[in-house]
Design a protein that fits this description.
alpha+beta; Alkaline Phosphatase, subunit A; four-stranded mixed sheet; globular; oxidoreductase activity, acting on paired donors, with incorporation or reduction of molecular oxygen; heme; monooxygenase; Phosphoesterase
């Protein structure tokens, strides 16, 4: 739907794996064709799916499945922990009545279920304001905690789903205040009447007003008749029949007919001018949501509880995921979007405010204070000063099938025709462009603003706009479509609701760089320098004021709408939320070089241009395509083996193989990368550096001059991995002899049950402990070696060279060569940026006493050292491109500048080149990309645009190994020495980028330093 928080969300959550929330994890139990599932249109396959999916099942609405999908806030396990279908969606053509009703009046796009739970808990909350989470206004012996449907007297566990409930409902407060109310239901109410679950209603005399108003079976026709006669009570509850509930397998199309019946009764009533109809769903129905729920601070009484299914953790009860919610009334007419945080408690608070306006003080004491403070009372959803009695044109839904006894049969008919109504899940067939459907258009905004939208601020004929020439906020012209890119803004919240403070980001970039509004209204590329604005809704369509917090002044327009400044007088701005996002602006073209070239004054070396003119290829620089199209679809995009000759000295290994062979190699290798291995690596790196200080350089040596930095760093990293692997003679023998002899030595020691070694290569050898022990006494040394080749699916006497030798060589190469070069670049950059060295040294001294040797437990204390390593790898990635060979013909979707999609077929055996360096220097993803700024890695950063270790399942298995060793080396070195330029005069008159180019000029090559290290010694 255009104008609501949906697939164009500019604030979409980025999960811990570096991917946006759209990319839900997929494991082998679901599919081997991909590692991620994007939202998918459930009827995309065509045919009769539009009818079949009306009775499909989405997923679970339960506490366990939905908390599991939320994944402790990562929100990326909907496919695995719930169902893949929970990540599907309908389009406007599938549910036209729902769309029309929501857009005819006002829809809320941040309205949530009260609890992450099933029907009963949410309906109980709807009529009472609680599910009795411990610490709230209720007592534990009053029922609950309600997290599941239970109508059997007693508890499912101590203080869990205890039935019946006995805390006070809002209807009882209405009753006491003399407010008329009635629940309308038929004989089939689907068991959804929440008053039936409360003890005081169960015990009420049959002729009492409490029982009559809650339990009378009046039928919905009674509601329609009362509406037509203008005799509805002050408050009405409507409980529909199961067949029209839209609860799977009952269809949305049948539910649409009920929506229309109720809406028609209200808008045709003589009392419509004084009526409000709120249409809400109790829970998610098993459909997923990309927006992470707002939560109370951890362990807030009445909001957090011990997880009954994992008592070692506490979880929040709610609010949960978003639900459809719209309000029909003369004061909500016009197609607006209400953006404030709200849930079922909001309906309760609205009625309280309405009754207060009539002089009645009816306030429930059962609602937890945190909800009152953080959920909207919905008043800003209405414009009470400008009622609009017009009625929109509405589609007429098809009436549901009805049986001879009046029962609704839509589900029966659908399931009879379509016994398997589930749509196909498009594993491995998705791109972001063909999956995330974004409608063009806009909606005017009401209520407190929230993230997740592209906003236009207008006053009369003027609109806030970006002046790209003067790099500042200015006034532009307002246009009816509200679609001028320069006039759009993105909000970044600076505090949790109910605060309404934000940084404002310009949607349009300047020279490819993202900019924010500074306190002087100038554009700034740094969010740290962005001004904080308090944006307040004045209500009743009066607009929003925008106050710069530090000065207390407001954005104000003067000079007949020609001048914008900060002043004491606030100008109200009307707000529109754009739905289209002009998706192409954020996501560069997929085919052809999508990124600008690296600026010419960054001299990255003689060979840092890689154009393979003799092969057709598509050069890809887009973050989403790199991470999803190519990295996740590993069976479609294969490694281009020709470029791996340098690492195939001893045969295929994990780096060079693909498909099933890759899986087998990884199965053998993966266990050797463990916490114990990392600790060994840390300890040995510390020892190597200590030996360098105390023996090679001498304790009192003040200056060490290094002419060629890799001469030093290669020696350090090679010694470290040799020590970590206990290859004592690596510098004294040919590499092949060392590995083969060491392999036999380890096997002999193992068979003789001598003390077990805990090192890198032994971990590789004994990765399948049980199978090894079973074979210990049955095979010779050579046969045991060959057994590992069977694990890899190979046979024959060459297994030693092909498998173990090859992977150990890969360990040696990947384990020191790339890190050696990275540390060389890092030290060069630190020499150019002394202030960054000081930050590292400060962190070292804060965590270590004088002359203290850092233990492995200190690793995570050196966050800034890791940030420096990461920034060095961003500027100078050791692997500058990933080359993939297309296994089968494939079609890429290319979004053109006019927004249309062009299908570009590429035949198999061609190449796709992923330009990592260009990605790392893309100003769309990195502010001031040429700048050496480690702080960009101290918080959240765009992990999709950072690929020094590749990505997806084929990402570098040794990443953590390199990080641990790199931190240890830099901490030891920089705790003793300061890195400086040997001849600073050579760099006089050069700016920092030119100095960097002169110092770090390099050539792309692979150094197999097993041999070269012998020369260095």
């Amino acid at each position: 739907m255009a104008g609501v928080r949906g697939f164009a969300d500019p604030n979409a959550h980025v999960s811990e794996n570096g991917k946006q929330v759209w990319f839900q994890l997929v494991d082998g139990t679901l599919s081997n064709d991909t590692e991620a599932l994007l939202p998918f249109y459930i009827n995309a396959a065509g045919g009769n799916l539009t009818q079949a999916t009306q009775c499909m099942l989405a997923g679970s609405n339960g506490f366990t499945a939905n908390h599991a999908a939320l994944a402790q806030g990562d929100n990326n396990l909907w496919a695995i922990a719930n169902t893949p279908y929970s990540w599907g969606y309908f389009l406007r053509q599938d549910i036209p009545t729902h769309f029309a009703l929501a857009e005819g009046w006002t829809v809320a796009d941040m309205y949530a279920q009260a609890a992450i739970a099933t029907t009963h808990p949410n309906r109980a909350f709807w009529v009472s304001g609680s599910i009795n989470v411990p610490g709230g206004p209720q007592q534990l012996d009053q029922g609950g905690v309600a997290i599941d449907n239970n109508e059997t007297p007693g508890c499912e566990a101590p203080n869990l789903d205890c039935y019946p409930y006995s805390w006070k409902t809002t209807a009882e407060f209405y009753e006491e205040a003399g407010v008329s109310w009635q629940l309308y239901q038929g004989t089939d109410n689907f068991g959804d009447n929440p008053f039936a679950w409360f003890e005081q209603f169960q015990n009420a005399p049959a002729n009492s007003t409490l029982a009559e108003r809650a339990f009378a079976v009046l039928g919905l026709q009674a509601f329609y008749d009362a509406a037509a006669n203008g005799t509805l009570p002050q408050i009405s509850y409507i409980i529909g029949p199961g067949g029209l509930s839209e609860h799977p397998p009952w269809s949305p199309s049948d539910g649409a007919w009920l929506h229309q019946q109720v809406v028609n009764a209200v808008i045709n009533s003589p009392k419509y001018s004084s009526t409000v109809l709120m249409v809400s769903y109790d829970e998610t129905g098993g459909w997923g949501d990309h927006v992470i729920p707002i939560t109370a601070p951890k362990d807030t009484p009445g909001e957090w509880m011990t997880n009954p299914f994992n008592t070692s953790q506490t979880v929040f009860a709610g609010p949960g995921f978003r639900l459809p919610f719209y309000v029909v009334s003369p004061w909500t007419r016009g197609g607006h979007v209400f953006t404030a945080h709200s849930d079922h408690s909001s309906q309760i608070m609205f009625i309280e405010e309405w009754l207060a306006s009539k002089g009645k003080n009816v306030v429930t004491d059962q609602l937890n204070p945190w909800r009152r403070e953080h959920m909207s009372n919905l008043l800003q959803m209405f414009d009470f000063e400008h009622p609009d009695m017009s009625i929109p044109d509405l589609p007429v839904p098809t009436p549901p099938a009805i049986g001879p006894q009046g029962q609704f049969l839509g589900d029966v008919e659908c399931q009879t025709i379509f016994p398997n109504p589930q749509p196909p899940v498009p594993y491995g067939q998705q791109t972001r462009q063909n999956s995330l459907t974004i409608e063009t258009g806009f909606k005017s905004v009401r209520g407190s603003l929230t993230e997740g939208r592209f906003l236009v601020f207008e006053s009369g004929n003027s609109a806030l706009s970006l002046d790209t020439r003067n790099r500042q906020l200015t006034l532009g012209g307002a246009v009816p479509e509200h679609d001028t890119p320069l006039n759009r803004f993105v909000l970044h919240a600076t505090a949790n609701p109910p605060a309404t403070t934000f940084n404002l980001q310009f949607f349009e970039t300047i020279n490819g760089q993202t900019n924010f509004i500074g306190s002087n209204l100038k554009a700034t590329t740094s969010m740290d320098d962005a001004a904080v604005f308090d944006i307040t809704d004045l209500g009743n369509s009066k607009g929003y004021t925008i106050q710069e917090v530090s000065s207390g002044q407001f954005l104000t327009i003067s000079g007949n709408g020609k001048s914008l400044a900060l002043g004491r007088q606030a100008t109200p701005f009307n707000n529109s939320h754009m739905g289209s996002n002009n998706a192409a602006k954020r996501h560069p073209d997929l085919v052809d070089r999508a990124l600008p070239p690296i600026p010419g004054h960054i001299a990255l070396g003689h060979g840092w241009e890689w154009i393979w003119k003799h092969r057709l290829f598509s050069s890809r620089g887009n973050e989403d395509v790199v991470n999803f199209e190519v990295l996740t679809r590993r069976n479609q995009f294969l490694k281009f083996r020709e470029i791996y000759q340098a690492v195939r000295t001893f045969g295929d290994n994990l780096i060079t193989v693909e498909k099933d062979a890759w899986k087998r190699h990884r199965k053998v290798i993966a266990p050797s990368f463990s916490e114990s291995t990392y600790k060994v690596t840390w300890d040995e790196a510390i020892k190597v550096m200590s030996g360098l200080f105390n023996e090679k350089w001498g304790k009192d040596t003040e200056y060490i001059i290094v002419k060629h930095m890799p001469d030093l760093t290669s020696l350090i990293t090679l010694k470290t991995i040799s020590a970590a692997g206990k290859i004592r003679n690596i510098l004294a023998h040919e590499a092949t002899n060392v590995i083969e002899l060491y392999m036999k030595e380890m096997i002999a020691e193992r068979r003789n049950k001598q003390e077990e070694r805990h090192d890198l290569f032994n971990a590789l050898l004994v990765s399948n402990e049980e199978n090894w022990d079973n074979m210990n006494d049955k095979f010779t040394d050579e046969e045991l070696i060959c057994w590992y080749s069977f694990v890899l699916g190979r046979k024959g006497s060459s297994c030693l060279t092909d498998v173990l030798l090859a992977n150990m060589f890969a360990f040696l190469l990947a384990g020191h060569e790339t890190l050696s070069h990275t540390i060389s670049y890092t030290l060069g950059l630190l020499a150019l940026h002394e202030e960054e060295q000081e930050k590292i040294y400060k962190q070292i001294t804060e965590n270590l006493h004088t002359d203290e040797i850092p233990g492995y437990e200190k690793l995570n204390s050196f966050t800034y050292v890791l940030a420096v390593l990461y920034e060095s790898l961003r500027l100078f990635p050791m692997v500058t491109m990933l080359v993939r060979e297309i296994a089968d013909d494939v079609t890429f979707s290319k979004q053109k500048s006019d927004g249309t999609i062009e299908q570009v077929p590429v035949t198999k055996d061609n190449l796709v080149i992923l330009d990592i360096a260009a990605l790392h220097y893309n100003p769309k993803y990195w502010t001031d990309p040429e700048k050496f700024d480690p702080t960009r890695f101290l918080g959240n950063y765009n992990k999709d645009a950072y690929l020094p270790f590749s990505g997806g399942m084929r990402a570098c298995i040794g990443r953590r190994f390199a990080e641990v060793e790199g931190i240890a080396i830099l901490v030891m070195l920089l705790s003793r020495y300061k890195v400086e330029l040997k001849d600073p005069g050579k760099y006089a008159g050069l700016d920092v980028l030119e100095r960097r180019a002169k110092l770090l000029k390099s050539e792309p090559r692979i150094t197999t330093t097993v041999q070269e290290a012998r020369k260095m010694k």
